[in-house]
């Protein structure tokens, strides 16, 4: 993934960014990188990290970094399906869910994004195509055409973390970025 691609996604103020990581090993690092890039452009903001796998210090190693940039970061450790109910009360700008458990949770994240929030959600899947196909099939089974249309219009992009290289080669993280126009053929 090139810097302009991730920068473009980090500039989103509403919508849904999906991070697909087959192994789950590089999810936290990728989310932290995305949020750090976002914080350089947005001096104010409230970010809620849902779950316990990502802490504010993972994003901003120095506590004063968060304060200096006017960030308010909180961690919600709870059943994730309650996040939609709490969103209106918290009025956060960004919600980060580092481990999507199932398709129902994705639909809740999509509904939250439809309310004007930016949602960054990480999921384990073989690749972007498998993930988007699985989600659109689930929404299709629900028979909710408006939700499928929302998926088309709300998703800002997918960051696919590529599997690590074979032993003996450098272990740098490589990415593929899928923008909404790339995802349209996968959403049915």
Strand content: 15-25%
Strand order of the largest sheet: 3-2-4-5-1-6-7
CATH architecture: 3-Layer(aba) Sandwich
Look up the CATH topology: Rossmann fold
Residue windows where pLDDT falls under 50 for at least 5 positions: 64-70
CA distance, first residue to last residue:
26 Å
- Name the CATH superfamily classification: P-loop containing nucleotide triphosphate hydrolases
Mean pLDDT: 78
Number of β-strand runs: 7
Question: Any idea how many domains?
Answer: 1
CATH class: Alpha Beta
Report the C-alpha radius of gyration, rounded: 16 Å
> Could you say which overall geometry the principal axes of the C-alpha atoms support?
globular
Q: What structural class do the secondary elements suggest?
A: alpha/beta
- Helices, by number, come to 9
| SSE topology string | HEHEHHEHEHEHHEEH
What does this structure look like?
By secondary structure, this protein is of the alpha/beta class. It has a single domain (3-164, 173-183), classed as Rossmann fold (3-Layer(aba) Sandwich). The protein contains 9 helices and 7 strands; from the N terminus they run αβαβααβαβαβααββα. Helix 1 (3-10) crosses helix 2, helix 6 (103-114) crosses helix 7 and helix 6 packs across helix 8 (145-154).
